[in-house]
Amino acid sequence: MFDQRRSVPHLPVPDCGKAAGAFVRRLQCYLGQTIGSHPNIAESAVAGLADALKGQLPVGFYVTNDGVQRDLEELQAELVARVRDAIGPVAAFKTAIELKRLPKTRSGKVLRGTIQKIGDGADRKMPAAIDDPETLAEIQDALVRKAILKQG
């Protein structure tokens, strides 16, 4: 657990870029990579949504590979178990939601901040560089179906 200097080492976060020292952002990126490493997952993203008790809880969003026919509950349980094995229970990851596609900019970056605002029910503007605005409505619908977001 401790390194030679008797301090807790940082989480390994390859390919996540610098996060300006923000632990939550690095953890979200690492969670997304852990979910995305599942053989049935094409792409994924994790956003921290507001929680009254813990401040924020991670919610995973994923797109399955073409042709994958799996029971959603079983796949979601596998994703939660994969995160718990890789990071541990400290990640508090319990929710994974399947989407047809993730909201992205025209350059291909996932709009995690916009996903977070939708999940928190916060006011948001339509991102200027969004590739397909319909993906935002799909996320809102998925959060309502999972009872994370209230209808309205």
If you had to describe this structure to a student in words, what would you say it looks like?
By secondary structure, the protein is α+β, with helices and mostly antiparallel strands. It has one domain (23-145): 2-Layer Sandwich (GMP Synthetase, Chain A, domain 3). Helix content is 33%, strand content 16%. The protein has helices at 23-36, 72-86, 112-120, 134-145, and strands at 41-51, 55-64, 95-98. The protein has a three-stranded mixed beta sheet with strand order 1-2-3. Strand 2, helix 2 (72-86) and strand 3 (95-98) form a beta-alpha-beta unit. Helix 3 (112-120) crosses helix 4 (134-145). The chain is globular. Residues 11-15 and 17-21 have low confidence and may be disordered.
Layout: helices, strands, pairs:
Layout: H1 23-36, E1 41-51, E2 55-64, H2 72-86, E3 95-98, H3 112-120, H4 134-145
Parallel strand pairs: 2-3
Antiparallel strand pairs: 1-2
